[in-house]
Design brief:
Number of strands: 4
Largest sheet: 4 strands, mixed
Order of helices and strands: HHHEHEEEH
Structural class: alpha+beta
Number of helices: 5
Strand content: 5-15%
Oligomer: single chain
Radius of gyration: 62 Å
Length: about 260
């Protein structure tokens, strides 16, 4: 078989032209497209990785902020709880103080009412005692209560004269004396008292008289800071102590000691 070198050469040239054409118009655009596609994919992957990293960073940031907010919430809750407990304690203490103040006021009011009741009882008892004593003295002695008071007082002054040895030297130094009485003394009573006092203190003693209703049917002699008195106040004081003892809450548990009540002369 003979080889046609012309045909071989022509086919070789055609093959080379075909290869050049394929490379020029087919392989290069395809390769360029493939490279561009790969570059685009790589860029997209890089961008996705960057976005993923950014998202992860944001996620970590949000998680950190969430933890900070949780810690802040816990701290605020703790502070609010502490403040609420402190306010509750303050309110309880204020309520306790208000209750103590109210209790003290109630106790003061009860004491005041008790004292008022005590005074009212004593006042009414005094009035009854005075009325009964006045009537009894008038009926039995045939004289008024004031006259009897004057007689008793003069008797006490005379008793002091008899007991002069037991008295201090003060009466000898007295140059003035004051006689106070719960009632207006009649002239005869004044003369009798003046004579008894001057007989004890000295005839040159200046004697003055004064009316003092607070003595409650009584007479007292004041001289150089000393006082000699006789009045129903003594009896009322004993009665006042008895009534007070009855009003005391502890009276039922501890009976009051017996009080010696003076007797009228």
């Amino acid at each position: 078989m003979l080889i046609d070198w012309f045909t071989v050469a022509a086919q070789t040239i055609n093959f080379l032209i075909l290869v050049w054409l394929l490379q020029r118009f087919l392989y290069r655009p395809v390769l360029a497209a493939i490279d561009a596609r790969e570059a685009k994919i790589a860029a997209e992957l890089k961008d996705a990785a960057a976005k993923t990293a950014q998202a992860q960073a944001q996620c970590d940031d949000f998680r950190g902020k969430g933890e900070a907010l949780e810690r802040q919430r816990v701290e605020l809750l703790r502070k609010a709880t502490d403040a609420a407990n402190a306010e509750r304690l303050r309110l309880l203490d204020a309520a306790r103080q208000d209750a103590d103040t109210l209790r003290a006021k109630l106790n003061d009011a009860v004491k005041s009412e008790r004292l008022d009741l005590n005074r009212e009882i004593v006042t009414r008892t005094q009035q009854e005692v005075f009325a009964v004593a006045r009537k009894a003295l008038v009926d039995l002695a045939g004289t008024t209560l004031e006259d009897r008071m004057t007689e008793v007082f003069i008797s006490r002054v005379h008793g002091l004269q008899v007991e002069g040895a037991a008295q201090p030297a003060a009466p000898a130094r007295a140059t003035a004396a004051l006689v106070r009485s719960a009632f207006e003394l009649p002239p005869s009573g004044r003369c009798a008292i003046e004579g008894a006092v001057r007989a004890w203190l000295g005839m040159d003693t200046k004697l003055s008289f004064e009316t003092a209703p607070d003595l409650i049917s009584g007479i007292e002699l004041i001289m150089d800071g000393r006082k000699i008195a006789w009045s129903i106040t003594d009896y009322l004081a004993a009665l006042d102590r008895s009534v007070t003892a009855l009003l005391e809450p502890k009276a039922a548990a501890t009976p009051p000691a017996a009080t010696a009540v003076p007797h009228a002369a």
